[in-house]
Amino acid sequence: MSEEIQSFSIEYLEPCAYLYVEVFNSKPWNEQWSFNTARTRLFEITNTPGFVGFIFKQDELLGFLAGYCKQGQKSKSFYLEEICVRPDNQRQKIGTKLLDKLMQTLTSIEVKSVYLLTNKDGQAEAFYTKHGYQRKQEMIFMTKKF
């Protein structure tokens, strides 16, 4: 099996939406995505200015990541909006390879930081911590429902 990482292009939108539903409707997230809502979400992300994304294939699509660059007052940052790996292929370094490709790309375009949101104290936080991400104590996530 040959593995490859490619840029996330529009041709991967639907396969990635199916993967998104498979991953996030399963444990530990147990969300309720439909194919249409997942496709819309990914379409919006891919059409955000500064979009950067990659897919991981090994004969078939096994994972992807997507986000976008944002200009700050002194430097650019990258918001890692989504990373997704097929459940039965997790813990096989696919996420690590996607992050490595992302970091190479961001370094080449002079992005200075990456940020993301994830559930605390779970498998995802442990993954990001392993790769050098830290909780920001001076920042909080706030929401208002209506």
UniProtKB/TrEMBL annotation:
Originating organism: Nostoc punctiforme FACHB-252
CDD domains for the chain: NAT_SF
Record-annotated N-acetyltransferase domain positions: 3-146
Short name of one Pfam family: Acetyltransf_1
Gene3D superfamilies cross-referenced by the UniProt entry: 3.40.630.30
The name this protein goes by in its record: GNAT family N-acetyltransferase
InterPro entries in the record: Acyl_CoA_acyltransferase (IPR016181), GNAT_dom (IPR000182)
